[in-house]
Design goal:
319 residues, alpha/beta, 18 strands, globular, disordered C terminus, zinc, tRNA processing
Length: 319
Amino acid sequence: MQITFLGTSSGVPTRSRNVSSFALRLPQRAELWLFDCGEGTQHQLLRSDLKSSQLCRIFITHMHGDHIFGLMGLLASCGLAGNVERIDIYGPSGLNEYLQAASRYSHTHFSYPVKVHAVRPGVIYEDDEFTVSCGLLHHRITAFGYRIAEKDRTGRFDLEKAKALQIPAGRLYGQLKRGETVTLDDGRVINGSELCGPREIGRKISYCTDTVYCDGAVQLAQDADVLIHEATFAHQDADMAFQRLHSTTTMAAQTALAAGAHRLIMTHFSPRYAPGNTLDLQDLLQEARAIFPSTDMAHDFMVYDVPRRREVELTKVGV
């Protein structure tokens, strides 16, 4: 699971930062999932090492322009390129009507299937490897945060040990790899967990923007390997943050701390903290680290590989 930030500014683009978007690359299945799609996102994709031909899912947090103005252009370009098979789009109510109107008035017709899913809190997508859920945040309009959870995997199967036990290859190997208990023809009972390494804990990513501090964000970020959270304002501008229902650096850090997240990556920064101003982004980073030390600050084209955690082998702790 690899995250690439494509836009880390709030409201408007700057010379060094585009507006909101990040991509999640799933190399094991050659898929690309996009989260938010501000104006210019397709240009950012072209400047990155990502392959738009792998794009298959887009998740939109809310209907403000700096999160959706790039969506129609990206979809149209994918159609003209002819290299996308199907795209599923998830977002708030009204997203489908927005895309239909843009398509109608621009006379744009997609050459591939596009399915828009209006989301509600709860699980919105699930397959054999991942579950994606969403929850309400607290913003001026309806806004959703997302949680991507990779399912746990059985540890690596010890093939040599299985051969040494003279277990017949074939169907039984599949059962043992899944941790099942099997009975051999000679009466021996083999516990699959004894032939597998430590269980691989599925990774979890949470994405919360735009929002002021709220319980919904904390719930989405529970035990997340990485929480991507907006930090539009510095702590000294908290009054402005509450008025506009955006987060400060300290709100983002408090969310990560309360949720027991393992890492916080802040994004969606106001252009007011550009170099030369009274406060700059390094000041914002220090504010957050004072509360949650494992904090990083995203920048456009920053790539983050989500590390994998391993569960303690149950047999070693006598469970």
